[in-house]
User: Which sequence fits this backbone?
DNA sequence: AAGTGGTCTAGACCACGTT
DNA sequence: ACGTGGTCTAGACCACTTT
């Protein structure tokens, strides 16, 4: 564990303990460097981490200001995978495949997955539950390569992500997300147990591997209130959480 | 403009021009330092900026990989202010105050704005339009100090943010956002011209000054499709845009 | 005027990937 | 074995805030 991270953690603890209350100033870089017995650059890197997490604000010429108690920031996988999000919130995810099939790629598939016209994609419609209650309908389109693996995934698999990692060594490293609202269609309403036209939060998602190649894209529709997307935003940081 | 930012911009341009195609590797830090005639640390800072913006991926031991074409990432103010978002998207924002009044602070106000029980807050209900079309209902609660200024703001003011900056020198520096979905209430439906129960995207927002003091909080309700929140997320970066 | 963070330099050693 | 990025050091000068 790098020294600068230890220092950042130590400062987080001090802030949580009330040594540096919200709104007050931290000691200067030079003072902290003495206190921790490291070079100024190392303290600087620690402070950079805290600024990036939205814990501190930084203005040239003035000491750094304490913004607030450190909040738990979600990991990349918690933000991408329904099951990992649920587990990390102390809920029990489950799911079932409603429908799965191979189709010729649509123009939208070709754009999102960067595949050739005429290639096949594997479409899966899943109903997702939290503690047995239906909360989300997921329509995912996989590239042919990934579909080969996914089609052998058990229908009641709670986490396709974990299954893919274990079975095929597939690791996601980046994702693009879009959030909007829509009205429940007939199929959505039937699966989720809402009336047709009920408000849903839509989550469109494209996931990529380490080299930036798209592996899947999906449209998820959540019952209103089941998912809240949270962003802490300043000119120097964007912290994401969801609950 | 710092040198490291110039270097980052230059690399962005090179990537856009196809000199470093998506999926390929960038030259090493040392090579780039020679090319730009700066110290390695300066190149490092430039590359850090690009990694933070999701343009590059970085793994120890391997050269940095080009993830994708540089995307325009929204500024903090574009993300916080309806008018600035609209303008930066080439749209014309307008707005009108439907109702404004002083009220005793509710428990929710006291929590969000960190004010004492018994203090007053200034509530404003606005209808917001894009190119004359109603798209959003905004219910904002201002602290007493800020309310003193806002109550003199013209009713048809397009950007309260700009007005506050010019008139009272108020600058926002951080904001917390929450997104979810809800059904249009009677008042929402009347103002937005939708049916009651129509799906809306809700945006709850609390804005802070440079010292972390809350200045206002708001609940904005958008017609479905009028606003899309976009997040590009990996373990090393969270890029936000909205359209 | 003094202090602070922002930028930049010029080195060093190490863990890890690539070959 | 070698090259690469990650970490760390020890300085320097400047723009800006605070007093």
Assistant:
């Amino acid at each position: 564990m790098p020294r600068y991270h230890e220092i950042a953690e130590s400062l987080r603890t001090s802030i949580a303990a009330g040594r540096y209350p919200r709104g007050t100033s931290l000691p200067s870089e030079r003072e902290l460097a003495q206190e921790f017995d490291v070079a100024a650059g190392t303290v600087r890197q620690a402070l950079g981490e805290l600024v990036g997490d939205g814990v501190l604000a930084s203005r040239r010429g003035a000491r750094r200001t304490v913004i607030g108690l450190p909040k738990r920031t979600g990991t990349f996988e918690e933000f991408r995978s329904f099951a990992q999000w649920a587990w990390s919130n102390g809920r029990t995810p489950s799911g079932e495949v409603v429908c799965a099939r191979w189709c010729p790629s649509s123009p939208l598939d070709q754009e999102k997955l960067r595949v050739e016209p005429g290639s096949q994609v594997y479409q899966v419609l899943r109903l997702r539950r939290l503690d047995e209650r239906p909360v989300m309908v997921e329509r995912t389109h996989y590239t042919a390569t990934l579909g080969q693996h996914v089609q052998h995934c058990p229908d009641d698999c709670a986490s396709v992500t974990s299954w893919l990692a274990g079975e095929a060594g597939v690791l996601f490293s980046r994702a693009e997300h879009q959030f909007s609202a829509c009205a429940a269609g007939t199929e959505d309403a039937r699966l989720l147990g809402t009336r047709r036209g009920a408000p849903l939060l839509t989550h469109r998602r494209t996931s990529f591997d380490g080299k930036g190649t798209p592996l899947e894209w999906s449209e998820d529709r959540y019952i209103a209130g089941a998912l809240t997307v949270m962003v802490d935003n300043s000119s120097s940081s964007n912290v994401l959480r969801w609950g």
User: Anything to note?
Assistant: The first helix of chain A runs from residue 3 to 16. Chain A touches chain B through 48 residues (CB under 8 Å).
